[in-house]
Amino acid sequence: MKKLKLLVINGPNLNMLGVREPDIYGSKTYADLCEYVRGAGRELGAECELFQSNHEGELVTKIQEALGVFDGIVINPAAYTHTSVAILDALKAVALPAVEVHLSKVSDREAFRQVSYAGLACLRTVAGLGFEGYREAVRILAEALR
Ligand code: DQA
Prior knowledge:
alpha/beta
């Protein structure tokens, strides 16, 4: 079976995992997340490249550069989920299969978190499963791509 190449994108403040609001996001760090995702990818037959940025434009550029390089995208746009038409448009532009992930259960949180622009360009949204949500996203993409 061909090994899939997936780009796993994390947006602003996710580099602060372990420090930021541990009651919501847990005590594990971004480095822990990277290790977890790479391991889950290996088990599911996917090579995962991770990218994190606090800057909207860098996230847009990375999505654009994925075209022709990656088979699919896992994206946690973090706060840009709820504001960024630019990230939505970038996902639509490359038209790669994408799955949206959130560590927390956004549906149980503030009203301003109930809108997801990026989600409009994604096959599915996985939320509230913590790190496990990334594994689920990779599994969904692997199933869709095979
Ligand atoms: C988040 C949820 C967003 O609302 C928030 O702005 C984040 C993280 C999550 O993974 O639960 O930064 O995307």
